[in-house]
Amino acid sequence: MSDSLRELWLRGIAFNAAAPADVLIRLLDEAAGEAGLLMCEGRDLPDAVIDAALRHPVERIRRALARNLHVDPARLAPLASDPSGLVRAYLAGGTRTRLEPRWVRPLPDDILVTFLTAQEGGEDGRLTEKDIVGELWSSRRVPLSFPQDMAGHDHPALRLYAAFQWQSLTAAQRNVLLDDPDPAVREAARKGSRQLDPEAVEAELPPIGSRHAVYVLSTCALSPAVVEQCFAADEVHPLARNRHTPADALARLARHPDAEIRRLVATRPDLGPEAAELRQDPDEDVRMRARLQSSIRTWAEFQEVRKVVDHGPDCTCPITQPADEPSPDWYAACAASEEPVLRRVAASWPGLPAELVGTVALDDDEEVRIRLACHHPLAPPHLLLDVFVTRRAHRPHLLTLPAFPRTGLTHLIGHPDPEVRALAAADPTLPEPPLEDPDDAVRRAAAANPALTPEALETLLTDLRTAEGAAGNPSLPVPRMHALLDRCLNGAATPPPAARR
């Protein structure tokens, strides 16, 4: 058995959907090498395999499991207090691959609490607790509602965290934190309150043009003097994004000579009569955005429109739950709008009622249909397939959706795109999987087609072109999976039946 064949068998079995827990647990052996790590990170796993990986003595196995975004995050809670700081950091940060699921599964509160109250970064001393929390903030795995949930927590470290997210809190929560019994929380609350005090912001303003100044000018309440400094320095992009920008400054931004500035303010819900002027703007994009403005009454609605209007049909941004969601009635109105952008917004809402989904799925605007396919659990399978065939960027995401069709694909077997042919090659209703296709991925998919018999798989297992697919075929008998692992992990010399014949 060549090393190449061994690696192909291991990878195939690692991702075989029919492989039982006792087979997959064997891949946690260090002798399985990269295949075991790929399995721990890259697929859903039975509970018994998760349990074995959680207590595995080899750190690399636990690190790989920590980055698994297919397993329910609640099952990974022990890794938040793993002896290895790297394991903790991997859980906090999640995966960083192109193929990660777009649906971001937030970490449960108990894991977040463990990270935020930790006194050290692991027994190995390679990372600090602050390093790990830094990974957490960049992961998108903290629910946007979490600061409000923690504002009244018994542990002062969590109230301190809430105080640092000052503008995410309600007025009542802010008032309570200002009188918190813990001095560090009170001090953080006092500093947070200064974000909404224009005079305090002016007194502490960093040099305009610095990175920190951009943050302050984008988020804090601003005095007239600070606004004038921004206009004098032509540093007005932050003002266009700041919810606290005064009305008179907003009116000036709506008439700014830079079309990009006018685009930024055109959909704001606090825009005044300038919106009518922007609907006549010489820039087409500004006019389109200004037409939407009358349908946007809240900042939550503004954010949902912005997610769409600032991105194109091939946007693959992570899909997260907003902290504050617009009302169902607003989404329904968007679905019936004459403006394609608003219909795209409606199509992006997973809660759109079933009676509207059917209408939106037939929309004349391609991006409406694309967004429905990528965001809504009731998007019809034929639409998912259409988007897969026509929009390459969305293929990894679409393949993760439960409703994605796996049969009825015979008409695609001659498609010029090998990714599409590979999809069709796995259709179990195919009369004859295309095992001789010139593309490696298509042959691999054909060899994994469950319509193949165990006898046919024996020949394919000995061919480097099809061995991985055959090892990943759900029709491969479980005893045969164990036999292959015996050869791969124990160095058994017995040749496979096909070779003996």
Number of helices: 33
Task: Summarize the amount of helix as a percent range.
Answer: 40-55%
Structural class: mainly alpha
How is the quaternary structure best described?
A: single chain
Shape descriptor reads globular
Verbal overview:
- By secondary structure, the protein is mainly α.
- Helices cover 53% and strands 0% of the residues.
- It is built from 33 helices and no strands.
- Helix 18 (259-265) runs parallel beside helix 20 and helix 23 runs parallel beside helix 25.
- Residues 492-501 have low confidence and may be disordered.
Brief overview:
The protein is built from 33 helices and no strands. With 501 residues, the chain is mainly alpha-helical.
Give the SSE map.
Layout lengths: L2 H12 L6 H6 L7 H9 L4 H8 L4 H8 L18 H9 L15 H9 L11 H9 L8 H5 L5 H9 L6 H8 L4 H11 L4 H6 L7 H9 L4 H9 L4 H5 L5 H8 L4 H7 L8 H5 L5 H10 L5 H11 L18 H8 L4 H8 L6 H7 L5 H10 L5 H10 L4 H4 L19 H8 L14 H8 L6 H8 L5 H5 L6 H13 L6 H4 L1
What tags apply to this protein structure?
single chain; 501 residues; mainly alpha; disordered C terminus
